[in-house]
Design a protein that fits this description.
Blueprint (H helix, E strand, L loop, with lengths): L4 E6 L13 H18 L4 H6 L2 E12 L8 E10 L4 E10 L4 E13 L4 E2 L3 H8 L9
Antiparallel strand pairs: 1-3, 2-5, 3-4, 4-5, 5-6
């Protein structure tokens, strides 16, 4: 397994709260953006997912805030899929300032929803493998 997928984001002024640091909800948005970019890097677009009758779902998300981000800061957001057995998988994401300072950790449990049956698919790892043109970003 190589380095985790990562995307760099610059903190925008309108994302700040009254204390002048990144609003707590935006950490989740940055993490979501990195997850979609990771899927896109693997060759899986939203249209491709929907066209195949499935969509990713978040079942649990935990954010651990370590340091603040302020307007203009650049932050790298990683995305590492961790596969096990069964219907769910884990995604671990680290947010790190461009100077290397750890800012937050986002961990989540996800699944792949069958859009017709409205149930989790039994083997999301295999389904993602079938959909990906480049499985490496997904650790497949």
């Amino acid at each position: 397994m190589g380095d985790p997928f990562r995307v760099r984001i610059t903190v925008r002024g309108y994302e700040l709260d009254t204390q002048g640091h990144l609003n707590q909800a935006v950490y989740l948005q940055y993490s979501e953006h990195a997850r979609w970019e990771c899927l896109r890097a693997a060759g899986i677009s939203q249209d491709r997912l929907i066209g195949s009758g499935v969509g990713p779902v978040a079942l649990e998300v935990t954010v651990r805030y370590l340091r603040e981000l302020r307007g203009g800061d650049e932050v790298d957001v990683t995305c590492e899929f961790r596969w096990g057995e069964g219907k769910t998988f884990q995604i671990v994401q680290h947010l790190t300032r461009s100077d290397g300072t750890d800012v937050a950790t986002v961990t989540g449990v996800g699944g792949l929803l069958d859009l017709s049956a409205r149930r989790l698919v039994p083997d999301p790892r295999e389904r993602f493998r079938e959909l990906a043109s480049d499985p490496e970003p997904l650790n497949l």
